[in-house]
Amino acid sequence: MRSTPDVRSADRDDLAVVAALSVSVRPASPVGASVDHAGEDVLRKHLSVYVGSGGTVLVAELDGQIAGFLLARTVGPQLFAVDPAIVVDALFVTPDSRRRGIGHALVAGVAALAGESGAPYVYAGAPAGDRAMQRFLARLGFAPAAGHRVVSTPILLRRLAQEGAPSSPRGDVRPRGRRESTRAAIDDIIARRRRARDAGLPSGPLDLRAFQAGRDPERSAS
Fold it and tell me: How far is it, in rounded angstroms, from Cα 139 to Cα 104?
């Protein structure tokens, strides 16, 4: 008789197993940092922080062994979304346990969480190039919602510098404060007026009194 996977929320001991499993198989994730160089202790700490900040770790147990896990969290309500949503951050099934309904059972578990929390939508992403995961999600009704792109911060800063973005004297890009932004806007207005004056164009507010007098002689005479 074929075993049925048992899906439940992970306890402390389960988090240690999930961390060890992640180190051994290096599962891909559509978001977050790579685990290629993270040790078991680091991943266990990350999982504890994830759960402590409201995330949920589901594990699927098959024949007494954890054969897969899913990480999910609730987001929102937020801008343009008045209802919360469930986001699946990672979904993994061990290679020797695939095609045994574990992935379906884990997704069923997160669907139950969505129902309990009143979330009308569940979001999930597949790592780039993982066509098997994309097909799996598509079969369960997941449709494209938005295309996310990711870039490391050092590369982003370097590209911004190459594109001529404003930078600090140290060479790193930093956001402007409100006072600095206001001053920059004033300097820009002054520069525009100087260019307009040099070109013989009006550089200040338009005087509409002559225009109004031509449109309404009686009003201008009063």
Answer: 10
